Amino acid sequence: MTDSVGEEQMIGDEPSREDQMTGDERSREEQMICAVVVTHRRLDELPKSLDALSAQTRAPDHLVVVDNDDDSRVREVVSGQPIPTTYLGSRRNLGGAGGFALGMLHALALGADWIWLADDDGRPADSEVLGSLLACAEKHELAEVSPMVCDMNDPERLAFPLRRGLLWRRRVNELRTEGSRQDLLPGIASLFNGALFRASTLEAVGVPDFRLFVRGDEVEVHRRLVRSGLPFGTCLSAVYLHPQGGDEFKPILGGRMHTQYPDDAGKRFFTYRNRGYLLSQPGLRKLLPQEWIRFCWFFLVSRRDPAGLIEWVRLRRMGRRERFGR
Predict the structure, then answer these.
(1) Which of 23-37, 130-144, 238-252 is the most confident on average?
(2) Exposure b/e, 27-50, CB count within 10 A at least 16 = b
(3) For position 128, what pLDDT does the model report?
(4) How far apart are CA 195 and CA 305, in angstroms?
(5) Taking the CB of residue 11, how many other CB atoms lie within 10 A of it?
(6) This prediction's pTM
(7) In terms of Cα–Cα distance, which of 180, 182, 158 is closest to 170?
(8) 77: pLDDT strictly greater than 80
(9) Bridge partners (DSSP) listed for residue 308
(10) In this structure, what are the phi and psi dihedrals at residue 220, rounded to the nearest 5 degrees?
């Protein structure tokens, strides 16, 4: 670890007025921004992500990297960044949920006013992304703001489709439609990939649920964010690049609805189990009828796979009962 918390503050010292000030009271220049990155065995991709974060015109004041493999080579990459860094190597794989929870809490302990989240296989599209997010958040008084998350190989295509009611948006130009302001799509956001949170927002909504491990952890935080009533949205002038992840969403009923079906069995386990938990929570229960319609249609009509439906039911029941063993 290249940084420690509270090393210079002696026990018994009275905190100064500056220490007591909240991020909202400090000026934009004085506010501390901490970037948090979670990585797991992506040594080829991680340096590109960190370089892009560190090269922002308004650079983060501190970088926290949670390594879910505790690899000394990752430690070296992190320590080589041109901004202050903290390396947190974990000998247990905490998953994305646990990794972000650990990194976000550490950033708060460092005194961050803003926490900027990033994955190890994505990166800001240019050097102005963080500055654009900050400006958008301040202009619209947002508790959280996300960039558009776009396909690394086709930036005009979204890396993950966004659903509005029964309609799915897959292209950038589909976001700049009715209901969006010139620079903001309010009330809709993809979390973790370039998302910027105020510290006070995390006090209200908390950090990701470690039990979810991977898949659905960002949906759970989004659920809490919606229920908190805090304002948030997507900044339409900021882009974060990420490998395409929308291929898991299979069209049904002539493309009017989609169903998530990861090809990898391990990903299906976490996806379906965690969805069982999520859709039993306040704010998401209203989606249950269409969830059953979509998956029954997908497995019985589209795939003609009754065994797949039985497995889906088993996994979602595990989640609903909060059976989170891996």
Answers:
(1) 130-144
(2) eeeebbbbbbbbbbeeeebbbebb
(3) 97
(4) 37
(5) 5
(6) 0.87
(7) 158
(8) yes
(9) none
(10) -65, -40
Residue tagged 């989004």 (tokens): 222
Please name the residue that has the structure tokens 């609805």. 257
C-beta of residue 29 within 8 angstroms of C-beta of residue 116: no
Q: Tell me the percentage of the chain whose pLDDT exceeds 70.
A: 88
Q: Whole-angstrom Cα distance, residue 138 to residue 142? A: 7
Of 75-89, 123-137, 155-169, 172-186, the range with the lowest mean pLDDT is: 172-186
Cα–Cα distances (Å) from 246 to 34, 150, 169, 249, in that order, read 29, 10, 11, 6
Residue 51's contacts (CB-CB under 8 Å, 6 or more residues apart) are 81, 123
Per-residue pLDDT reduced to its tens digit, 105-122: 999 999 999 999 998 999
**Contact yes or no for 27/134 (Cβ under 8 A):** no
CA–CA separation, 272 and 261 (whole Å): 9
Do 137 and 196 meet the contact criterion of CB atoms below 8 Å apart?
Answer: yes
Residue 159 half-sphere exposure toward CB, CA atoms < 13 A: 24
Q: Is 94 exposed, middle or buried (0-12, 13-18, 19+ CB in 10 A)?
A: buried
Backbone angles phi, psi at 171, to 5 degrees: -115, 150
Q: How far apart are CA 136 and CA 139, in angstroms?
A: 5
